[in-house]
Specification:
alpha+beta; 5-stranded antiparallel sheet; 44% helix; 13% strand; membrane
C-alpha cells in the first residue's frame, strides 16, 4: 500500500500544490485507500467529509467499488448507480469539485485521470410561509437558502422547455452558485446578455446573499433606490418570467432578484392579483398616497411654522400655539428629535428577538411619546404627525423601498428649514431629476410615467382586469409582445331562463 502511495504521480502532484498543502491542515480533508481483490486494483478516494453524505459513500459507492470488477475509470460509470459522475484529466478542477460535494476516485492503471462522484450532503430547511411578502390570499410557499430547492419551486410553476437556466459561479472565495432564468422566445436577449455580462464581471471575494449582486451590478450604485426587485415568493417569479423579465437565483439566499424593474413595481403587492381589480387599484393608490404623506407631512409642518404660518387657518393656528406654548425647541429640532426616536425604536425592535422587539416597539413608543409631550420637549400635534408618518411608511410591500422612503424624509426636512415650501419643491425637483435619469439594466426606472407609455399604465398605478392586459410591457421589448388572444369565454344563460 505504501509503495503504491509513493509511486502515484498524480497524487504527488496533487499534494505538492500550494492549495493542497493548505487542505492537509483541515481535519475534514480525507484520503482513503482501498483494494479490490477480484481484479487486484488499488484505488483511492479523496473528499471533504463535512460536504459529502457519508451514507451514500459507504452504502452506494464503496460496496460497488470493492465487489464489482473494473479495469478503468470508464467502467466506474457502469457499476455505480449515480448519474452525476464526471471523468477528467484536468487537475485544476479538483479543488472546485471537492468543495462542491464530490468524491475524487483514482485507480492504479488510470493514474492521469480522475473520476468525480457526486455525493453532496444536502442540509436545507423546510418550506415556510413568506415573512416579508405575506399574503392572506394565495400560495403560502417561500424560497429557502438552497438554490436547487428554489429552482424546483420555479420549475413546478413554469413547466415548459423554453425556461432556460444558466449557471454561473461568482466570488473568489465563496464560489457562490448563481442561476439566471428566462423564457426563451419571450425575454429580450439584450436583457439576458446584460445580466450575464455584469455578473461575470463581478470582482468580489465573498457573495453571501442576493443583496450583494444588486449592489454590484446596479446601474447607479450611489442611488438610494434599489434598481432590482427581490422577492421570496415563487409565484411572483413565475409571473415575471411569463411577463418577459429575467430572474437571478443566488445560492444561500432566500430572495430571488428580478430585472429590469420600475419604481411602480415596488409599491405593488403580488396579492393585488388575487383580489378583484377594484380593490387592488384602491390599495395601490392608498400605498402611493401613504408614501407621499410619509415623506412630506413633517417637512410641511416645519416649513409652515417657520416661514408660512400665515397660511395656517386661524382655528388650527390656535391649536398649534397652545400645543407649542411650552416647547423650547424650534420646529426643525423638534421634528428631528421625534424622527430619530422613531428610527431608534424601529432599529431596536428589528435587532432584538421577535417577542422582545415587539414589546420594545409598542411600549417604548407609548412611554417615550407621552413623556416627551408632558416634559414639553415636543408638541402633541407633531407627535401625531410623526406617528402617522411612520405608520404610512409601513404600507410599502417591499422592505428595501421602505428604507429608502425613511431616508428621504431627512433631506426634505433640511430643505424645509432652509427655504420653507420653496425648499420642499426644490428638493422634489432634485428627486424627480434623479429618478428620470435612473435606469434598471438600461431601461427607464420611472416607466411608464416617464417616458409616458399609456399602454403600460394598465398594470401600474391601477390594475385593470386580466382580459385588458393582453400585451406585455412595452419597455421590456419582448420577442412575443402578445400574451393571449382576444377570444373571451362565452357566458351561458341560466337553465331557468
Amino acid at each position: 500500500m505504501k509503495k503504491w502511495f509513493k509511486n502515484n504521480r498524480n497524487k504527488e502532484e496533487f499534494d505538492k500544490k500550494d492549495g493542497q498543502k493548505v487542505l492537509l491542515k483541515s481535519y475534514d480533508y480525507k484520503k482513503t485507500f482501498y483494494y479490490n481483490q477480484k481484479n487486484n486494483i488499488r484505488f483511492s478516494l479523496t473528499f471533504v467529509s463535512t460536504l459529502i453524505d457519508q451514507n451514500v459513500l459507504h452504502q452506494t459507492v464503496l460496496p460497488h467499488l470493492q465487489e464489482n470488477e473494473f479495469t478503468s475509470l470508464d467502467d466506474i460509470k457502469k457499476i455505480i448507480p449515480i448519474s452525476d459522475m464526471e471523468i477528467s484529466d484536468d487537475p485544476s478542477i479538483i479543488e472546485q469539485k471537492l468543495f462542491n460535494g464530490y468524491v475524487m476516485l483514482t485507480i492504479e492503471p488510470d493514474e492521469k485521470r480522475f473520476a468525480f462522484i457526486s455525493t453532496p450532503k444536502l442540509l436545507v430547511r423546510n418550506l415556510a410561509q413568506p415573512e416579508v411578502e405575506f399574503s392572506v390570499i394565495g400560495p403560502k410557499e417561500a424560497f429557502v437558502e438552497s438554490i436547487d430547492q428554489n429552482l424546483n419551486l420555479i420549475r413546478k410553476r413554469v413547466p415548459v422547455k423554453e425556461l432556460v437556466i444558466e449557471s454561473l459561479s461568482v466570488g473568489n472565495i465563496s464560489k457562490t452558485k448563481i442561476a439566471i432564468l428566462h423564457i426563451d422566445g419571450i425575454t429580450d436577449p439584450q436583457n439576458v446578455n446584460t445580466v450575464r455580462q455584469r455578473i461575470q464581471e463581478i470582482e468580489y471575494d465573498q457573495i453571501t446573499d442576493s443583496s450583494y449582486i444588486v449592489q454590484l451590478i446596479a446601474d447607479n450604485v450611489h442611488s438610494p433606490f434599489p434598481q432590482m426587485l427581490d422577492t421570496e415568493r415563487p409565484d411572483r417569479i413565475a409571473a415575471i418570467l411569463a411577463e418577459g423579465k429575467v430572474a437571478v437565483v443566488v445560492d444561500g439566499s432566500p430572495h430571488v432578484l428580478i430585472a429590469p424593474t420600475t419604481i411602480v413595481e415596488f409599491f405593488n403587492a403580488f396579492e393585488d392579483y388575487n383580489l378583484l381589480w377594484h380593490s387592488a387599484s384602491f390599495f395601490r393608490m392608498l400605498r402611493l398616497f401613504s408614501v407621499a404623506f410619509s415623506i412630506l407631512v413633517t417637512p410641511v409642518y416645519v416649513a409652515a411654522l417657520t416661514y408660512h404660518y400665515e397660511l395656517i387657518p386661524k382655528d388650527l393656528l390656535t391649536t398649534l400655539i397652545s400645543s407649542r406654548r411650552v416647547v423650547p425647541l424650534p420646529p426643525i429640532l423638534e421634528a428631528l428629535l421625534l424622527e430619530l426616536v422613531i428610527e431608534l425604536l424601529r432599529e431596536a425592535g428589528a435587532r432584538l428577538p421577535t417577542k422582545v422587539g415587539q414589546t420594545i416597539g409598542i411600549v417604548g413608543g407609548i412611554v417615550i411619546g407621552t413623556a416627551s409631550v408632558e416634559a414639553g420637549l415636543t408638541s402633541n400635534i407633531l407627535l401625531i404627525m410623526v406617528a402617522l408618518s411612520a405608520l404610512a411608511s409601513f404600507t410599502t410591500p417591499v422592505y428595501k423601498i421602505g428604507v429608502s422612503i425613511r431616508l428621504l424624509r431627512f433631506p426634505f426636512l433640511f430643505f424645509a428649514e432652509l427655504w420653507g415650501l420653496v425648499g420642499i419643491v426644490f428638493c422634489f425637483c432634485i428627486l424627480l431629476t434623479h429618478l428620470i435619469r435612473l435606469d434598471s439594466l438600461g431601461r427607464p426606472f420611472l416607466e411608464p410615467l416617464y417616458p409616458p407609455r399609456v399602454a403600460d399604465l394598465k398594470d401600474a398605478l391601477i390594475r385593470l382586469p386580466f382580459d385588458k392586459q393582453r400585451m406585455r410591457p412595452e419597455y421590456l421589448r419582448t420577442e412575443q409582445p402578445i400574451r393571449f388572444g382576444k377570444k373571451k369565454a362565452k357566458v351561458k344563460k341560466d337553465i331557468d331562463e
